[in-house]
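As the work plan foresaw, the team has encoded backbone shapes as discrete tokens. One protein thus recorded appears below exactly as we store it.

:::
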Amino acid sequence: MFSFYHVLMLVGTTHGLVTSFLLLTSEKNKTSNRFLALGLFSFCLVCVHNVLITSGMNKTFALFNFFPMATDLACGPLFYFYILSLVTPKSSFNNKMLWHLFPFLFFQSYVTWCYFSVVDLPTYELKVEGVISLAYRPVKTLENYLTVVSAVVYIFMAYRKLSEYRKRVADNFSDSEVATFSWLKKVTYLFVLLVLLLITIAIVDLIFNVDEITKIHWRVLLLYLAGLVYYFGFAGYIQPEFKIPVTESTIEPVKASPLSQSQAEQLVNRLESLLQIEKMYLEPDLNSKELAQQLGTSQKNLSYIINSHYRKNFRELINSLRIEEVKSKLLSNVGEKYSILAIALESGFSSEASFYRVFKEHTGLTPKAFIVSQSKAD
């Protein structure tokens, strides 16, 4: 029976299909957007399949009897490929990664075989008997369990890759234009919440047999999932061209000091000289490799000094110095001669958007509000 739930699902599916097309034809972030488009399209097919089953259309129309769709197992890998293509250099992504799609290809081949094995049978009842003889029910049950496992595994893998990338950027790059994908981290948290809800509902169903009374909880969960996935796709589409650092090297966390106390003190003094006197932080593209070379030390030693002495990562340290530079100029005669943007660019920021974001993070105020607050204090 067709209901308001099915209308919502079809409206969402239409939105998803349109977004998939826009992602495929977008000139921005081509590789990553292709994966996101394919993942979104796969999920649209999952939603269509759900509508066919829950509305009874899979039984009413012969064409839809056991219609072959197993794209739920393709969604996890494709969304993971999207994140991987964002945070990993192109050279690291190769055809060997396609083994992630093997479960999808296996089950899709199986349901396609079942469909064409019974498609010519005259009645739905005969088709049921036909697919049962092909072990359809246990295989589909296995597919459903694997779908849940796949979702959990790929959400975890995506979160780990994203966290590693964000740490790598924070430890190596001061340019605030380098993408950190904060929006993507929030989306990942929402997917984690989804998995927790899924597990909770499954356990409650198992213990109290709620599934035999009503399926509304599953429909609410699927609507939440659909909304989340379609938001994910649209948010990905409206993102600007990402600025991704070329290097993928990660500085390993230092558990013990690699330097003696005297060596550490000397390095701190040299670092203070470069930052406070030479003001290297005014260079918009300053990175940890360049700063370490100026100090005549390794990135590992530099990372240790910054973490232990300043209690910050590289990006936090450089941006805090830039903010102090901006604050000083805003409250001096310089602030009367130049615009806020000119001062920000002169202080090492590479764009207006990144400056305002970082300034608000450090002071809790906009630059204009900061000037007003200081004027009142005086």
User: Anything to note?
Assistant: The radius of gyration is 27 Å.
